[in-house]
Design goal:
The strands form 2 sheets. An 8-stranded parallel β-sheet has the order 1-10-9-8-7-4-3-2. Helices cover 47% and strands 11% of the residues. It has a single domain, classed as Aldolase class I (TIM Barrel, Alpha-Beta Barrel). The longest helix has 22 residues. Helix 5 crosses helix 6.
Length: 305
């Protein structure tokens, strides 16, 4: 029987040194820190991993390193998104062979205008599924510029057995999760949210069973998720209200750089560098982020000290 995944599956950041090279030892430390955060799984090579700045060779290096180093301690989701169906399928096949528990894919897109129609989107996911034969999570995010109607998502779940997980991070995510669960029924094995868990409580109320934040504070999100799962919603709401300012600051002021900044401060990695043309955090924003993080003391802020 296929295992159903739920819970907290954060995105692993990709550490670079100050010259922009991959920091492979830092990557191992990131993964160890994430396991110690008590996560239910880890997602690699996603947008918050700066996958868009990696070469194909670097992707392959990180794929092998991450799966070998995690070594089954938690399941690993590998992002394989690409505009080309053939390339996405080849990435998926490589990830499945390396031991990925699941794949995550955005619909095919390139810029604002090169978008596939619904039938080609269906064929894209069907081809990847047939190639890899492991569970697939559809990433429904504004970044792609592709509208994925609930009817299409439900069709993917109904007609492609491997497509059974959905990461919904569109505006009004709770409404879409609720509609997807109603339309997809038991074919939707894992309705997840994203966006650093900024709408987590509403999404859990809508029937969500998992969340995919950054690796900045999953240990603090754990208390929200566990209380909610134990039918203690008031306590979950209290925990969530406490950490929401940090989640909001990460989401609205920092983006993917927040986790790396906190992990550098906490001795997990040596550098919080991002690759050009992404700019570093403004010094004042960085100071405000760290001050707010110190109030909440996530494990990433102390793991390497």
């Amino acid at each position: 029987m296929t295992k159903t995944y739920s819970g907290i599956f954060p995105i692993a950041p990709t550490p670079f040194d100050e010259r922009g090279n991959l920091d492979l030892e830092g990557q191992r430390r990131v993964l160890d820190c994430m396991v110690d955060q008590g996560v239910d799984g880890i997602c690699i090579l996603a947008n918050y991993s700066e996958q868009f700045s990696l070469s194909d060779e670097e992707r392959d290096t990180l794929l092998e390193l991450c799966l070998a180093h995690v070594a089954g301690r938690v399941p690993v989701i590998v992002t394989c998104s690409h505009f080309s169906t053939g390339i996405a399928a080849a990435r998926a096949k490589r990830a499945a062979a390396a031991g990925a528990a699941m794949l995550m894919l955005m619909p095919p897109y390139h810029g604002a205008l090169q978008l596939a129609d619904e039938e080609r989107i269906f064929e894209h996911f069907a081809t990847v599924a047939e190639t890899a034969r492991i569970p697939i999570m559809v990433q429904d995010a504004p970044l792609s510029g592709v509208n994925l109607p609930v009817a299409l998502l439900a069709r993917l779940a109904r007609e492609i057995p491997e497509v059974s997980y959905f990461k919904i991070e569109t505006p009004m995510a709770a409404n879409k999760l609720r509609a997807l669960i109603a339309a997809g029924g038991t074919d939707v094995a894992g309705p997840f949210d994203g966006e650093e868990s900024i709408t987590l409580l509403a999404d859990l109320d809508a029937g969500g069973t998992g969340t995919m934040p950054s690796a900045l504070l999953p240990d603090l999100i754990r208390s929200v998720f566990d209380c909610y799962s134990a039918d203690r919603r008031p306590q979950a709401a209290t925990h969530y209200a406490r950490i929401l300012p940090l989640i909001n600051f990460e989401n609205r002021q920092c983006g993917l750089r927040a986790c790396k900044t906190v992990m550098k401060e906490g001795g997990v990695i040596k550098s919080d560098a991002v690759r050009h043309p992404l700019p570093p955090l403004h010094p004042e924003i960085r100071a405000q982020l760290l001050a707010l993080a110190r109030e909440h003391a996530p494990l990433a802020l102390a793991w390497g000290r």
